[in-house]
Amino acid sequence: MNRFHALAPLALAALMAGCATPTANPPATPAPVSVLKDKDAARRAEFDTALSRWHGASLAELTAKLGKPTTVTRRGDGSTVYAFTRAAPTDPGTGQSRFACTVSYVVDDKTQRVQSHGMAGC
């Protein structure tokens, strides 16, 4: 397995930990919205690059590293989408998840190789 394939699960874990961990002492002056958007865009681009390293990997490698997919959806074009969702613990007050990230991989049914990926909520 390519050494970069190991980075995607770590990137997902770091991403989730960073978003789910409350700050003990928030800054007195929040950063401007434009700065936050730039940082978020850079973080998403870095995560997207890490996920793209799975392209060409086998389904067996993918599931060995990420575990059982949350959902599996067959498509009519000869491919299947394997989605993996990770969520932060729920808010005790509302019962809703504070953060959820879904990464989906499109796998060719014949070759059993990852063709592409997508992400939502990450």
Helix and strand element order: HHHEEEE
Mean pLDDT over the residues:
79
The secondary structure category is alpha+beta
Major beta sheet, strand line-up: 1-2-3-4
Distance between the termini: 25 Å
Q: How many whole angstroms does the radius of gyration measure?
A: 17 Å
Total beta strands: 4
Share of helix, binned: 25-40%
> How does the overall form come out from the CA principal axes?
globular
| Uncertain regions spanning at least 5 consecutive residues | 1-23
- How many domains comprise the coordinates? 1
Biggest β-sheet description: 4 strands, antiparallel
Portion in strands: 15-25%
Put simply, the count of helices is: 3
Walk me through the structure.
The chain is of the alpha+beta class and 122 residues long. The chain has one domain. The chain contains three helices and four strands, in the order H-H-H-E-E-E-E. The protein has helices at 7-20, 33-52, 59-66, and strands at residues 71-74, 79-87, 100-108, 114-120. It has a four-stranded antiparallel β-sheet, covered by helices on one side. The longest helix is centred in the middle third of the chain and has 20 residues, at 33-52. The radius of gyration is 17 Å and the shape is globular. The protein starts with 6 loop residues before the first helix and ends with a strand. 14% of the residues are buried. The model is unreliable at 1-23 (pLDDT under 50).
